Amino acid sequence: MDDIKATLHKLCIDYVQSRMQAAEDAIKEAQNAAKDDTKSSAGDKYETGREMMQQETNRNMAQLTEANKLMVALNQVHYTPVYTTAAPGSLVTTNNGTFYIAISAGILSLDGKSYYAVSPASPIGLKLTGKKTGETFSLNEKNYQITSII
Q1: Quick check: is 82 in a domain?
Q2: CB-CB neighbours of 67 under 10 Å
Q3: Which residues form a coiled coil (predicted)?
């Protein structure tokens, strides 16, 4: 089972790295477009274009910052211990899905099975954290029963 958690952790790292790469590529593209933009006789048009490219760069810088924060959070997750209580790094199986508590990375597919990578600060992460096998909780009018934790 540790192999599953190690692989899920690696998939989360890949997810964050792809977000970082996409943001970095978009920043470079916007910067190159700004350099290539030549001033035309319509000065306002030029300034508007440069401003739009600057806003795009700023938006992508914010996305890169968020991705870096995710990587920091992910680096603090210890997935090797076998857990008896749901906590960051644990894999929690319920009657409504299996959750890897680490970062919010959506659905991760592994060997034909779906796992939900969730942040401990997300609504489901908050409900799961501290629970033990056999315990139940409700979220969005849906009942969950924990069947295993590793």
Answers
A1: no
A2: 20
A3: 13-40
